[in-house]
Amino acid sequence: MEEVIELKGVTKCYGSLKAVDNLDLAVRKGEIYGLLGPNGAGKSTTILMMLGLTEPKTGTIKVCNIDSTVNPIEVKRRVGYLPDNVGFYDNQTGLENLIFTAKLNRATWTEARDRALDLLNRVGLIDAANKKVGTYSRGMRQRLGLADVLIKRPEVIILDEPTLGIDPSGVKAFLDLIVQLSREQGLTVLLSSHHLHQVQQVCDRVGIFVNGKLIANGTIPELSKQLFSSEVFTVEAGIAWHELEKPHQLMNDLGKIDGINSVKYEQNRLLIGCSTDKTAAIARTIVRSDIDLTHLYQRQYGLDEIYQRYFEGEQKYV
Ligand SMILES: Nc1ncnc2c1ncn2[C@@H]1O[C@H](COP(=O)(O)OP(=O)(O)OP(=O)(O)O)[C@@H](O)[C@H]1O
């Protein structure tokens, strides 16, 4: 598959600090890639290098097959960058701001106006097209920012914490729009964020970034397989158990089943880690005991658990 963003052996130092350390990263055409990591991990530095705004000490960076270090202007022409807080002319309207950007990108006035109106419509700002941007809410400014990025018809968009400060329904609309645009136009999206839930909702693949290194990279099922390889399945069983003591006999019986690696008791439920799907055997064992089964389902590992396990070390079940 064609790679639109490609970093090989990239290192960036600020004095003695290695902000990015021998990084290899590839983002494919049309995919939505989530860059996740704690504060100071090196995400913004990596983005700045992709845009050619700062140079790496070693390594190569190519965006749309163009070397960002050698030819940053050409890269900027093809890449739309949305920072967490976009600057606009506040005393001009949303429409005027977009027309201004389109004209900077060599559109004629008519083309610029048509494209601006179309994008205002797509990002849900058509009713506010003739209002001054100074009166826009934070969510409206971010949506206008997305329109401003798209007006130059980029092949790639890079979004750095784009949903910061937007309310939940605004976030959903914003993310849905990004997915829709990516799918319709084959747009490649790099999304840097702290919001695990949002990243999980929209990204095809995720990279976890810590201390300048990419410590994990893949789809969410791939990451959970890497991390939870001995406990691919976790089954949660609800039980009607009101004693203070744990249900030791039942836990022992479950623990004897081949393929069950751990059994943990939390209030009124058992969390059972298995290397293969043991749901049926678990159901039979509980039903045979004197304890009522109230629910049973397989838990999927989400990005929350994946992230937690990377940062807090492996949790042992008891
Ligand atoms: N211009 C600079 N001069 C010196 N150090 C810097 C500079 N920019 C970033 N750093 C340092 O480099 C490291 C990586 O910072 P960076 O901003 O890339 O991280 P980040 O993952 O984007 O963090 P955040 O999520 O907080 O934005 C940090 O330790 C930061 O203090």
UniProtKB/TrEMBL annotation:
Gene3D superfamilies: P-loop containing nucleotide triphosphate hydrolases (3.40.50.300)
SMART domains given in the database record: AAA
Pfam families: ABC_tran (PF00005)
GO MF, one example: ATP binding
Record carries keyword Metal-binding: no
Keywords: ATP-binding, Nucleotide-binding, Transport
Database matches in InterPro entries: AAA+_ATPase (IPR003593), ABC_transporter-like_ATP-bd (IPR003439), P-loop_NTPase (IPR027417)
The ABC transporter domain, residue ranges: 5-236
Family the UniProt entry places it in: Belongs to the ABC transporter superfamily.
Protein name: ABC transporter ATP-binding protein
Organism in which the protein naturally occurs: Olivibacter oleidegradans
